[in-house]
Amino acid sequence: MRTPLPASCFGRYVMLSSWDAAWIVASPILALYLRNGELVPHSGWDVVGVYWLISASFSLLAIFAFRIPDAMMRYFTVHDAFDIYKAAALAELVTCVVLFTFTRLDGIPRSMPLIHGMLLATGLAAARLLFVHFNDDVEDSEHHLGTGRIVLIGANRAASFFIKLLNAYPPERQRVIAVLDERPEMTGRVISGVRIIGTPDRLAATIDEFAIHGVEVEKVVVAGENILSHAALVEIQRICSARLVELCSLPQMLGVGASGSKEVEASTLRHKKAKPTPALPAYFVLKRWIDIIGSATLIVLLSPLLLAGSILTLLDVGSPMLFWQERVGRNGRSFLIYKFRTLHAPFDQRGNAVPERRRLSAIGRFLRATHIDELPQLLNVLIGDMSLIGPRPLLPEDQPQDANVRLLVRPGITGWAQVQGGKLVTTEEKQKLDEWYVGNASLWVDLYILLMTTIIAVRNSGMSEETLADVEQVHTRNDPGRRGHAGRRDAVVRPSPVNVIRLPEQRSGAPRLSSHEG
């Protein structure tokens, strides 16, 4: 049970930055000025004052309802941006109800809530983006790939203590991502900030679905010695053994249980000690500003496509509209990459696998073929997780053996390796191409990559092969027995010479692909 704060300390934890407070106060008047072209409309100060009071009050309540001030600005994420826009939408909805249902202030234009909502959300998000940009220090000089992810079985006091212990020390090295419990009535509840998602018979589906999202479960921890039946424990051992996931007993991990439990060898990602890294071209200082301006402009210009993609996805596969997958980004830090969902969920509510033929619909094929499903990645660029152009972000297990150079920069939506064949080249070839780009990036190289990417998108070159590679990857993750045969995604399909685009830059130092490798 959480201990409440003393009455004298409670008020000190109400956090609101000076910018947020000033913007909440000023944005209604600024929105009115932008709408009418003058500070005060003909209706007078009394109507403006009532509108300002109602709008600012509900804006303040909404951002506290969504706990916007609680999030640290330097760790601003896509989820935080969504929360800001949700809070702005809620504030304007309540403002509309009060303003136009009860008072019917004729002096305030009906479009004001929409204008103010966009202005409010944009100002709050822009302040956080600028803060992230000017405080973008390199925290983790050592790339720490393969953070240990744990599925915990059993919701008890020991499980709660274990979750809190991992959150306290060491930070971000290991953490519990889901809890399973044999009591069905516990499903949906939260223990120490982690949700109970089902019963232990859902373990296989949980591990496989997290793998689809790029999150590899390293351990399954049973939070007690007698909390599972013998049959359930045997089944859990079989599932962990088949998926090369370590199975542990929490009492024995803490040194308070009986000895003799069985554990299986874990399949974890280990990397070698980082080699000295080269200096980056000065262009990367300007490149971040290009990304901010370019992604913001594209989001505005492509907003009809973003709206259409959202509606199509919602009608096709339902909520949530976005598919997320954990990737490795700059300096080895993990982030979530976003796309519109084009597949139905791989498992139903009971944990049963959904046949692949029922997952991809005609709408999903359309979104993939037109690349509309990739548009949400512009938010990743705006936030600072990605760049418009750079090495594509990879899953931890797909990283080359020495990934230090490619991890010096932000990953990109498209890149040098992508216009050389993308998924149809091997990991070693990608590594050479990405390292060449990191050392030779310039405005002209980026413009060339952008041009070639546009040509490829229009021609839809290699789409069928890449789609097959994606489907095979999903099959491999859902069937661990095939992992040894399929290996990395790059080994799924080999390109023919016609799939590889030869660019002029290869003659001036860029790595070339040998003829026998296609």
In short:
With 518 residues, the chain is α/β, with parallel strands linked by helices. The chain has helices at residues 7-10, 18-36, 45-65, 78-103, 112-134, 157-168, 203-212, 230-242, 250-253, 283-301, 303-316, 362-369, 377-383, 427-440, 443-459, 463-478, 483-486; strands at 148-153, 174-180, 190-191, 194-198, 217-222, 246-249, 322-328, 334-340, 387-389, 412-414.
Question: How would you explain this protein's 3D organization?
Answer:
This protein has 518 residues and is of the alpha/beta class. It has three domains: 121 residues, no CATH class; 106 residues, Rossmann fold (3-Layer(aba) Sandwich); 223 residues, no CATH class. The protein has 17 helices and ten strands. The protein has a six-stranded mixed beta sheet with strand order 3-4-2-1-5-6, with helices on both faces. A two-stranded antiparallel sheet has the order 7-8. The chain has a two-stranded parallel ribbon with strand order 9-10. Helix 2 crosses helix 3, helix 2 crosses helix 5 and helix 10 packs across helix 13. The C terminus is likely disordered.
Largest beta sheet: strand ordering = 3-4-2-1-5-6
Class of secondary structure makeup: alpha/beta
Task: Count the beta strands.
Answer: 10
Number of helices: 17
Largest sheet: 6 strands, mixed
Report the span from N to C terminus. Answer: 61 Å
Mean pLDDT: 76
What's the structural domain tally? 3
Cα Rg: 26 Å
Unreliable spans are 5-13, 138-146, 259-274, 461-518
Q: What is the element string, with H for helices and E for strands? A: HHHHHEHEEEHEHEHHHEEHHEEHHHH
Roughly what percent helix?
40-55%
Q: Strand-residue fraction?
A: 5-15%
Coarse shape: globular
